[in-house]
Amino acid sequence: QEDISAAEDDVAQISDLNGLVGPIPPPIPSEDGQALQLIVPLDANLGDELSTVVTDIRDIVAGKDLDLVSVTGPGGIIADFGEAFGDIDGFLVIVTALVVAFILVLVYRSPVLPVVVLVGAGLALGVSAAAVYGLVQADVITLNGQSQGILLILVFGASTDYALLLVSRFREELHHSQDKYSAMRKALRGATAPIVASALTVILGVLCLLFSDLNSNRGLGPVAAIGIVSSLLVQLTYLPAALTLLGRGVFWPRRPKKDDTSPGAQGIWSKVADLVQAHPRRVWVATSLLLLVAASFVFQLRVGGASQTDIFLTEVDSVAGQDALGRHFPAGAGSPAVIIGAASDVDDLVAAAESVDEVDTVAVTTDPPPGAPPGVPGPADGEPKVVDGLVEINAVLGVSADGESGYQVIRELRDVVGEVGDGSALVGGFPAINLDTQDTAERDLTLIIPIVLFVVFLVLALLLRAIVAPLLLIATVVLSYLATLGIAEIVFDHVFGWPPSDPAVPLFGFVFLVALGIDYNIFLMTRVREESAKRGTRPGILAGLRVTGGVITSAGVVLAATFAALGVIPILFLAQIAFIVAFGVLLDTTVVRSLLVPALTYDIGRAIWWPSKLASGDTSSGRT
Q1: Under 8 Å between Cβ of 434 and 503
Q2: Cα separation of 386 and 619, whole Å?
Q3: Cα(28)–Cα(6) distance, rounded to whole angstroms?
């Protein structure tokens, strides 16, 4: 009784807060007498103010001499979700910048170049943030914490990739030209096409998310596209100017000299090219088999969505409260299913809902007593409240409302109430919304993936002026993606013991891996095409591999590291996306682009350029 009195005192304070849509019902004791439940009716349209209201409620109920006092339910979970992203941007920027700087110093052994590249990334981030802010303010696009974190990572990674390609070409030209201006002109001529094609591929790939029916997915598409456009513009304007201004000094203390040497003539990439030349078929068969073995585990990948309480990688108040709620009350007490149907069918709807196993209680919303203030709930035995001929029925689930068991109950509820009257009754509420979100995400997966592949194929066909090469490149990137998912299944399930992935995880992983993975193949194959026009296809493949091997691998390591930094946000699906993209990019740059693609194209020969003139104009000796 003392605890009930304390709870009633809290009710008086909570009732004065903004954001409530009605009076708070009396505290509900559990059957075991060990817990009290206080239901606070919050406005579903609070938006950003929800976190403030939940924080105020937590401040009011804190300090009780009890084992646990938690604010949970949909409001508490959403507030904790938003809190996980709060103040993370600054930390994420610092982590990402430090990682990129460390890798650049390691690769180029210069303290100057990393600063120049990071300033460009910072400018691109500022431009993209300003553009996104303006469009959000104009209600053109939507922005959430998920899109915000991915934008930051994507801009840093893409900006650095584009910068490294131009830097590599500039350094190469400095070996052939004493004049830094001439070297930059030649570098831009050679690097602009692959950089623009790469950016266009990513832009079109992420814009395919506009075909999604989920606002979170659709919102990410334009935001990510803006980030790539900003990265492209900055690195083709600021960076050439900065590099030209500093000249050879940007590479201090290892300044390139005019000695007419070619990068890749010696070192590991020369050895890789020699291996491809000596045993092309063995190399591509072995790497393909390796990827196929990894890809075979994709059939064990569990995709169905984690419960809302499983998405947090750290302990949060709402999860503790949800666990307590499940121990002392019906498992779905905090998130009932809401049935809306015709008033004339109310008895049949109640009977139908009660017939479903795992539905604990069913209650009709009733009219309040005469003269009661607005929002006061009606008595349990009162007359049903009818609005526009419709009634509201709350069904409390006996299983967790958030998870596959709860989703199955929602499906059964929809089946049985759909047979009542004219079948117009609807089942909503928090668990139904989560189910619909999962189903829509699965639909997006099957719709958007083919669209992305088609768009990427068109870009590659236009760039390479061929059909065979684009098909080959897409096939290798898809194989790399499947292998990555196979490894991810092993890591997620057997190493970390994580719950099933949200369907958005493989979708985002596909969009980013295919779009970004194709980037490295674009960097390689545009140089191969350039060299093939001079030397013939097979010598051109080897020359392209020698020249681009170092820069592409460096770019891949940088991009993988930046996406790995996304894991600092303690949200399950972001950690999963971070692993998939980071591992996938490393796999793509070290195995697919370095071994599989060169060996396969070398084995096929000039036919990869069909139907362009290069397919019939190969002057190389040896196998054709």
Answers
A1: no
A2: 83
A3: 13
Q: Is the pTM of this model over 0.70?
A: yes
- Of 127-131, 263-267, 468-472, 512-516, least confident by mean pLDDT is 263-267
- Cis previous bond, 114, omega within 30: no
Q: What is residue 445's predicted lDDT score, i.e. its pLDDT?
A: 86
Round to whole Å and give the CA distance between 55 and 63.
14
Q: Which of 69, 96, 127 is the last residue of a domain?
A: 69
CATH number at residue 351: 3.30.70
Number of domains in the chain: 3
* CATH number, position 527: 1.20.1640.10
331 is a domain residue: no
172 CB neighbour count, 10 Å cutoff: 22
506 and 358 share one domain: no
User: What is the phi/psi pair of residue 34, to 5°?
Assistant: -105, -5
pLDDT over threshold 80, residue 255: yes
Q: Across residues 552-573, what is the average pLDDT? A: 85
Contacts of 551 (CB under 8 A, 6+ apart): 164, 165, 167, 168, 523
Per-residue confidence (pLDDT) for residue 623, from 0 to 100: 42
Within this chain, do residues 483 and 552 fall inside the same structural domain, yes or no?
Answer: yes
Q: Is the N-terminal amide bond of 570 cis, ω within 30° of 0?
A: no
d(CA 209, CA 509): 12
Asked, for residue 584, whether it belongs to a domain, the answer is yes
Range of the domain at 453: 88-308+435-615
Q: In whole angstroms, what separates CA 228 from the centre of its chain?
A: 15
Residues ≥6 apart with Cβ < 8 Å to 154: 224, 227, 228, 512
Concatenate the DSSP letters of all residues of 438-477 into one string. Answer: HHHHHHHHHHHHHHHHHHHHHHHHHHHT-SHHHHHHHHHH
Query: Above 90 in pLDDT, residue 501?
Result: no
User: 119: which residues sit within 8 A by CB, 6+ positions away?
Assistant: 238, 242
Q: What is the mean pLDDT of the chain?
A: 86
Angle between helices 430-464 and 504-535 (to 10 degrees): 0
**361 & 302 share domain:** no
Q: Which two tokens stand for residue 54?
A: 């939940």
**Cβ-based neighbour number of residue 212 at 10 Å:** 22
Report residue 618 as tokens: 């190969």
Q: Per-residue pLDDT tens for 382-411?
A: 888 899 999 999 998 888 777 778 889 999
- Which of 69, 101, 118 is a domain's end point? 69
Sign of CA dihedral 515, 520, 525, 530: positive
In a domain, 34, yes or no: yes
How far does the chain reach from its first CA to its final CA, in angstroms? 89
